[in-house]
Design goal:
It comes from Streptomyces hiroshimensis. Keywords: Hydrolase. This is Alpha/beta hydrolase. Belongs to the peptidase S33 family. The chain has 476 residues and is an alpha/beta fold. It is built from 19 helices and 11 strands. It folds into 2 domains: 273 residues, 3-Layer(aba) Sandwich (Rossmann fold); 181 residues, no CATH class. The chain has a 9-stranded mixed sheet, with helices on both faces. Strands 8-9 form a two-stranded antiparallel ribbon. Strand 10, helix 17 and strand 11 form a beta-alpha-beta unit. Helix 4 crosses helix 15 and helix 5 crosses helix 6. The longest helix is centred in the middle third of the chain and has 22 residues.
Amino acid sequence: MPDGLDGQDLVGGAQRLGGALDEAPAGAAVPSLAGAAVPSVTGRHRQPGLVLTDHHFDVPLDHDAPSGERIRIYAREVVASAREYDELPWLVYLQGGPGFPAGRPVGRENWLDRALEDYRVLLLDQRGTGRSTPATRQTLPLRGTPAQQADYLAHFRADSIVRDCEHIRRQLTGGRPWTVLGQSFGGFCAVTYLSYAPEGLAEVLITGGLPGLDADADAVYRAAYPRMERKTLAHYDRYPGDEAAARRIAAYLAQHEEVLADGTLLTVEAFQQLGILLGTGDGSHRLHYLLEDAFVDTAAGPRLSDAFGEEVAAILSRAHCPLYALLHEAIYAQDGQATHWSAERIRGEYPQFDRHGDGDGATDGGRFLFTGETVHPWMLRTHPALRPLRHTAELLAERKGWTPLYDPERLARNTVPVAAAVYHDDLYVDTEHSLRTARAIRGLRTWVTDEFEHDGVRAGGRAVLDRLLRLVRDEA
């Protein structure tokens, strides 16, 4: 997600090899520079305005057992083509999630355009995602039993991601600190980084990702369900006809088994999860257009259209990010206790989410409410990418022994420059939790704004990153 000169000599030395890395065959060893082991470089590509270089790093699965099993981490280096041979500090980008790879750039888009003015950027596919050693329904059975899979995935939280970063930093920069930009869950990782390896950091920039330092999963969801309700009602204020449309779809799903083309079983509860769109800048409009074209007349009467089903399947699919479901509640677990399907249990405290009414009106007087960023045990039945991992997910939900991810005492003594964008009434990260954490991290500067939703770093183009850079440099 957060002006030291990180790794300048190493990068400049590599670039001054006169492009030799471009011609290095896949997997070839690259000579050590500045006393640091350079990772395997497997490809270099050019886009208008960009030079992209592929890097692969072998890291320990368990950093406490460095001689044990190793996994592969992929990262994409991005530099402005006009500055390809310049000695630049490094910025590593930590994506939101958990379970999502870094974005795949197409030119100098959104925040990247601003970052490339000052940095050589590393887009990290966090362990288990993207081109890093994958963790999916296809690959996890290689680990053995569900219990063995759960033990393996216990090494995929923020603490391990930070230690991966430190392993990579020492190879890539020769030990010099770098800047971290953490979005959403990437910001959680950045706070873990500040807690346990601040010596690796020159600056930290966080967007929509200041976690509650002591908020367990139950506290997170008790704060989240009221936000989901507010966001839903605000959507209906913008598009008053959408509540009737949503009720009609829910009534249809209550009476028909709807299996989407990818095998997803679309239940009422799964349909409600389209509320995840309401946490993004354009999400309310996308939801409206989706709802208004849901039905089509057929020989058998009105049915949900194939076009509607295809778009819903794309939004709800976990095929590309199963870790999002498997580890979502574990990212909040720090006290050694199991999460016990927290979102499902806490939902029972908010019965308004179970009042759906009928197609013409809410016969029970309730409103139709969308949910959002929650994971439930029924998803192991409705989502095809999760069905084979059902026992693994259940074991992770009941797993104990989770260790702390943050060190409040060390954060209170922080000396790393930090700036964070906190989005007013963020659907995904509780604003009050974020502000309490901001007050607990020494020297952290905040920018609280209602101009953007959770995806401000993308939707805001250069603006969000530029504001944070000026804050962290005491220029604003």
